[in-house]
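Ticket #4471: structure export looks truncated?
Reporter: QA, pipeline team
Priority: medium

Steps to reproduce: submit the single chain below to the structure queue and open the exported record.
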Amino acid sequence: MKQRIFILCWMLFIGFGYIHAQGGFQLRDLQVSAGTTAELPVSLFNDSPLIGFQFDLQLPPGIQIGQTSGNYQVRLSGRNHPTHTVSCNRLSSGLYRILVTSFSNATFASGSGEVLSVGLTIDKSVDKTTHPYSISNALLVWSDKSQTTPLVNPATIRVQEHGAFEFPALELAPGQAGQLGVALTHSDPVIAFQCDLILPKGTRLANGTDAIQLTGRKQDHTLTYRPIGANSYRIIALSMSNLPFRNLAGDLFTVAVETDKPTTEATRRIVFRNSTVSLDKGIKLTLPEASNTIRIRKIKVEVQALGSGSVSGSGLFNYRDEVNLKATPLNGFKFVKWMADGRVLSEQASFTFLAENQIQITGEFARDMEFLYPVTASATNGLVEGLGNFTYGSEATLKAIPNTGYSFVAWKKDGVVVSKEAI
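Actual output as written to the record:
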């Protein structure tokens, strides 16, 4: 009988030891982009209550745990009790020692799932290859204060050139709307993305609820956006079936932007930040900040004359302001037409249009063949016949008739003799 009891107790001891052995960390293969940041999830499985744990994290060269205000970016992920705390210190060996404890000996309930999130910073110069990373010197502290060494799986971090949102510079006049096409450069198929759009002063989203739209690259993807601050919007695009966007060579989505009217001329920046993309197998990458200029410039209308006449109407205008052109020909000439970029705008001397683009306009004049030129002359001691009004290019014949006792001497113009013939 005593022997049986001993055997039973021995079996219970082994059984409890076996239970404690069933705990460990699950590391995930990670894919990151050089020159960006990423989140490294650490999962814990335990089938008995667990008070805390410790381990040393070894990262590849060129990859570090990021810092905020001098503190390493290591956060508990939700399985913890409110009294659990996490600390992280870098050892002289270069390893990161991470310790999770509870000042009230509260426990992690039995289960499995993500327990820590580690914020990584990836150098731009890091080797673009697959690097192993690991956990060592790990301990699990159970509710009965016993300690065991957990199981840990091997894992890797794959580093590649980062993708990025790209978009061209934009130029708009005050009060004008324009469309910004945003492309995503990335070597792997993208299932979803998120980013924050920051518009500069003097601009806003146009088209109401349809201001930001996916292009034909989508499959069953949907896009939503909401304001997160002054002129700032969070954009989220997801696939209901985890399908990738089709071809990422072109624009992925468009943003309708409008400038205030009136506003001052300025060159400012449109920014996309806090951008992430989701790839296959749950891989999530952080993209670098992307920005480009938006130039707010009044519409310049330049008007010039070609021929004998004057024009008016030049100036700087807001989008769709009225521009009033006026042409005034010199005597003997007439206005013909307003021309711009090889096309006729109008044949009216007074012409009004709406400013929409920078434009150079020419007002053309030509000689008026129906204009009558007066021909006048005076005579001393005689008469002149043939005076009157004549069109340009027509012939006028003047005849000098001297008074009795006088003879014709010469025709003079501005004191200069032009002819000595009477006719």
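Status: closed, not a bug. The export was complete when the record was re-opened. Leaving a note from the reviewer for reference: Confidence is low (pLDDT under 50) at residues 1-20.
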